[in-house]
Amino acid sequence: MKRDALVFIFILIFTSAIQAQTVIENPKKPLSKNAGRVLKLKDVFRIMDIGTDYYFKHPSHLQMTSDGCFLISDEEQLLKFSPEGKFIKNLYKKGEGPGEINSNFSYLIHKDEIYIYDLRAYKIIHTDKEGSLIKELRFKSGLLGSFLGIKGDWLIFSKFTFPPFEERKYKLYDVKHSIIFISKNRETEKESHNFPIKWFIAPGIMRSWAYFYSALSDDSKHLFVSHTREYLIKVLDLEKGVVTRIFNRRYPRVKYVMEEWERNFIKRYNSPEKKFEIDIFGLYIYKDMLWVKTSIKDKKKGVLIDVFNNEGKYIDNFYLKLDGSLMDIHEDSLFARETDENENIQIVKYEIVK
Prior knowledge:
It contains two helices and 28 strands.
């Protein structure tokens, strides 16, 4: 009986490992007959920093609360707006005391409560949706990465582990980039998975060769990840700690256009030359589907967005015409950061026309 149980466990592990390594190869064209269209958008409202209560310098990371309000992070600002786009207040409190932010930060909204990660003070500031402090969680050491999400009693981070300084040569390295779970009581830390990212590293020089993009499913069970220059997406099961799906599609790569400073960098440090753009520039969850922002751009149509279902099948694509960058998708609304003809920054809410 015990032997049968061991055999069953071995088969289960072996099967999971095979499944994790099987890449779902999608064709060049999606299933939808209406693919390649330009997504129709209806302008709902535009927000500009025309007053004195706040300013836009590098607005990013927009997230929604259940009542339709939304937050935007900026330089020493965490701005809250009403569902109609009216400014409510700045939740950022500068300082080193309880509930105060030292410097750079990132944040997440979970069950209508705000979790702010202070990168310099190594702490999580937990508040209600109005910004009132609930408690603080301080860590023993810093986390070189991003605050990715929350699952139950666990805070999910990414963490870089670079080679020691004395081992750094003039070459590309597969830098360890781990998904880390830290319990809310700070007593337990565990590593879930490693997604290596290539960096060009030399003494005193570090330049990322690829980027890490992720999107957490609405049920917080899966993390969709892109971590290479090539078109490849992995799905990490956060409960099991294993990659359960890998998928791609036949992709016409975009030639990389080098700037003059890069030519000088290559000559000086003998860095490898980039032949193509990174294929993927962002991952977004929309109604149980994955939107993939690609490197393909059309001057008239905009940027190409690929759409996959939960099984990794390539079901649709469309062009997204924005005068800026996509920030968030919520229900049938889309938020973007755009600039007008005078380079003034605007936060724009669009309704997706079906």
